Amino acid sequence: MATPLNRFSASSIRKWAEFVRFSHTIFALPFALAAMAVAARENRGWPGWRAFALILAAMICARTCAMSFNRIVDREFDKENPRTASRHLPTGQISLANAWTLCLLSAVGFVLASWGLNDVCFYLSPVALVVICFYSLTKRFTDYTHVFLGLALALAPVGAWLAVKGKAISIQEIASMLVLALAVMFWLIGFDIIYALQDYEFDRQRGLHSLVVAWGPRSALAAALLSHMIMWGLLFGFGLLCRFRIAYVVGLLIILLSLLLEHWLARRRSLKWINTAFFRLNALISSVFLVVTLAEVVFQGGFRLR
Predict the structure, then answer these.
(1) Between 244 and which of 15, 28, 178, 296 could a Cys-Cys bridge form, CB atoms 3.0 to 4.6 Å apart?
(2) CA gap 113, 63 in Å, rounded
């Protein structure tokens, strides 16, 4: 039987998870874990429990910090926007002081996790925090806010790769890591443009910037499709660099079909379908990429154990 304390704890956890949209961790985390596996491919993709736990902690802390900061600096816009007016800060479900506390504690947790990994991650951790938080300010002055968010998300596979390899990373690995990071960046640019369609009228009236506002929905959607095709090409190049075979090719085909379906939904359906295109299909894309990458790392070409 649930006690009041249990109910309170469950509701509090759910409230804070919704505040930082914890469910959206599924976007960046699979790419980070895939990068971790490729970096540790000499050991069948496993870096050890300590490194794995620290990478997971760093990812969760970084994203929590970035999302908390986003909610804090956008709270006045969220209050005015009918789509976001029911969020936790505008409605007072979470206080501004508590939101700042979560943001700062997450930043400290990220730095500590980076320190536990290696010197490279530790020294770069403040830079990463600046990049992932800076995105939240860009809608105030640039139409290319999606690019900054893409750059922030692209740090996930870079960080995971460096967490495994540190200073021992090779030139070929750097090339593979950067190609994957660029793929993630263009993927994010594409689906963030689609997501921004929901706020087109509000952003235009309030003078907020995005490619949807600057170019109009139709041209912005064309740019999103181009971005996703570049992303797919970069994933193909990543597979070549890593010498992946059949499992990865199957995954690329599923990813391509998912991207095309996402754009079909964005063009043919009402705005209420955007969340389907945004969340479910992109969660599928990242999950498929992780599964097929793990299959290629753990198994050799024809599914033979190394």
Answers:
(1) 296
(2) 13
